[in-house]
Design a protein that fits this description.
48% helix, alpha/beta, 12 strands, 8-stranded parallel barrel, two-stranded antiparallel sheet, globular
């Protein structure tokens, strides 16, 4: 058994042809279902432009959901620190920690949409240094320190948190979105934070075949990270999983939604050089399925491939199912239910007791049938 947890990573993607209000209501319904199904975490993202990425404040949505849920942990996936003053980030996550009765996780990153940055005057060229300075300040505040610092981007003067984390200073986990590049690994080790990383990015790859072994590349980066972090450090992996009758059937079910996001958001809106042809989209999706970047197949196949991914990444690891909603809302809810009811039990030993009981009973079936026959023949209870 792995020292693992299972959650869902819900990016802020919403089809702009659907009512934004309806999309938000669907998010709320989905989060409630994920809690009911027993997932450990739900990650909610933040963006401020593009028309597709309309969730601008994950903390506000989480606060609303706090009273509607009982056990699931809420993780910001992620708060782009250069967009906010670090004192306000620390204050909001601590307030959320109280509102959720200690179920808040702080996920942070640099931000990715340049238009998000330019709308508020954040210089994309300095965003990494800005992020690092902000992270140091947020961590110090969450650890109960009083902060005095002046940077090119913000000032903190006698900054202190009035409200401390529910379970005391330093108890809110901080997770950094990372590709586990050498610079990313250095940041993680310097700040004693843990990473969340995609097995494959939401757009898959720019062109078919660009990533021949995404899991192999990931495990190499994880090994490098753990070697420099003295080992034993948890990694959160975000992976897309889709249950279908077969991988081929799954590709057909996903292709329209996958292509629409690649075309509408990444190519036409964000300007990524993604070829826009049905053949290119199909080949990219098929290649991701073939190489394991996306996991698609029946429940047994999905469980086997997830188990292989967990084995290769190694303990400790948490797995978050990436939920880009490439199928209808109802189908998305059904997919999450299938993962919880059919796939996770195979990974967590949920079938072990019944399987062993069947084995033991069937091994003795002939003898037990004879005993039962004799019992009934002797006037025993039926």
């Amino acid at each position: 058994m792995h020292t693992k947890a299972f959650g869902c990573f819900l990016p802020p993607f919403h089809d702009p042809s659907v009512s934004p209000h309806a999309s938000l209501k669907r998010d709320i319904e989905l989060c409630g279902l994920v809690d009911d199904l027993g997932f450990d975490e739900i990650w909610l993202g933040e963006h401020h432009s593009s028309g597709w990425s309309t969730l601008s404040s994950p903390e506000m949505l989480m606060a609303a959901l706090a009273r509607e849920t009982r056990r699931i942990h809420f993780a910001t996936g992620v708060i782009p620190l250069p967009y906010h003053h670090p004192l306000h980030v620390a204050e909001r996550i601590v307030l959320l920690d109280h509102l959720t009765a200690g179920r808040a996780i702080l996920g942070v990153g640099t931000g990715t949409y340049v238009h998000d940055m330019e709308m508020i005057g954040v210089d994309p060229a300095s965003v990494r240094d800005h992020f690092r300075a902000a992270l140091a300040t947020v961590q110090a505040l969450l650890n109960g320190e009083t902060v005095n610092t002046t940077t090119p981007w913000f000032t903190a003067k006698k900054a202190v948190l009035q409200l401390q984390p529910l379970r005391g200073a330093g108890t809110i986990e901080t997770v950094v979105a990372s590709s586990l590049s050498p610079a990313g690994i250095e940041l993680l080790t310097d700040t004693a934070t843990t990473p969340t990383v995609h097995v494959a990015p939401p757009w898959g790859s720019i062109r078919p075949g660009m990533d021949p072994d995404p899991i192999g590349a990931l495990t190499e980066r994880v090994e490098s990270y753990r070697n420099k972090s003295a080992g034993g450090t948890r990694v959160r992996c975000n992976v897309f999983v889709h249950i279908a009758d077969s991988p081929a059937a799954g590709v057909e079910e996903l292709l329209e939604g996958f292509s629409a996001l690649r075309r509408g958001l990444y190519r036409n809106t964000l300007g990524m050089p993604i070829p826009d042809s049905p053949v290119a989209h199909r080949k990219t999706l098929q290649n991701l399925v073939d190489t394991g970047g996306f996991i698609v197949g029946d429940a047994a196949t999905c469980a086997a491939r997830i188990r292989d991914l967990l084995d290769r990444v190694g303990d400790p690891v948490s797995l978050n199912f990436f939920v880009p909603r490439w199928v209808s809302h109802q189908a998305t809810l059904e997919q999450l239910t299938g993962l919880a009811h059919e796939v996770l039990p195979a990974l967590t030993g949920g079938y072990d007791g019944t399987t062993e009981s069947i084995r033991l009973t069937s091994e003795e079936a002939a003898r037990q049938l004879k005993s039962r026959t004799e019992l009934v023949g002797n006037g025993g209870d039926k």
